[in-house]
Amino acid sequence: MDSVSSVAVRELPLFPLPELVLFPGRQLPLHIFEFRYRIMMNTILQADRRFGVLMIDPDSGDIAKVGCCAEVVHFQRLPDDRMKMLTVGQQRFRVLDYVREKPYRVGLVEWIEDSEAEKNLTPLASEVDQLLRDVVHLSSKLTSQEIEFPESIPELPLDLSYWIASTLHGVAKEQQLLLEMQNTAQRLEREADILTSTRNHLAARTALKDVLPEDSPS
């Protein structure tokens, strides 16, 4: 098991969300309408504007123990005290215990970080970056739609590993595992496996698409 780097322990309001995993550096827009979370947001807006996002497992209903702290960077009040918010993921945390659960959960949490890399991760990060570009190119070819590759992809291996993980869709449990990893190399290697499998699948479908029109009856 990877070692945990505990920078500090603090109380943090918690916002569990079904099948949603937030990563550091990624934006999360929210529409706050439940009464308990309106209370929570009004409280944190008077403090440091930070709260924790935790994934709710869609099958078991269990709330994850590891999540990502979010900071409110913009908000708009709507009628009935509803709010629209833009938040950004900050550092990761692990819930040690619940301080209270009503009207909303507040946890005692410790910040966690990745262990220091034992080798140069630049080559691995470059490999993962290229795999992602291959997937985007093949997806564009398969759908016959131009898919623009984002210009703001992080270059640092740690930031890239978070960015890649956040782009995976429909695999919240896999994303949760990536969030919980505390080794950048392991996270990038797992992402390389996922992207390689996706690339091979898309390549096979693209090849089939190229062949079928010629063999299909008119």
Q: What can be said about this structure in brief?
A:
This is LON peptidase substrate-binding domain-containing protein. Helices cover 39% and strands 28% of the residues.
Describe the model:
- The protein has 218 residues and is α+β, with helices and mostly antiparallel strands.
- It has helices spanning 35-44, 122-143, 157-167, 172-180, 184-215; strands at residues 9-18, 27-32, 50-56, 66-77, 83-100, 106-112.
- The chain is built from 5 helices and 6 strands, in the order ββαββββαααα.
- Helix 2 packs parallel to helix 3 and helix 2 (122-143) runs parallel beside helix 5.
- The longest helix is centred in the last third of the chain and has 32 residues, at 184-215.
- Mean pLDDT is 89; it is low at 1-6 and 214-218.
- Keywords: Coiled coil.
- It comes from Leptothoe kymatousa TAU-MAC 1615.
- Pfam families: LON_substr_bdg (PF02190).
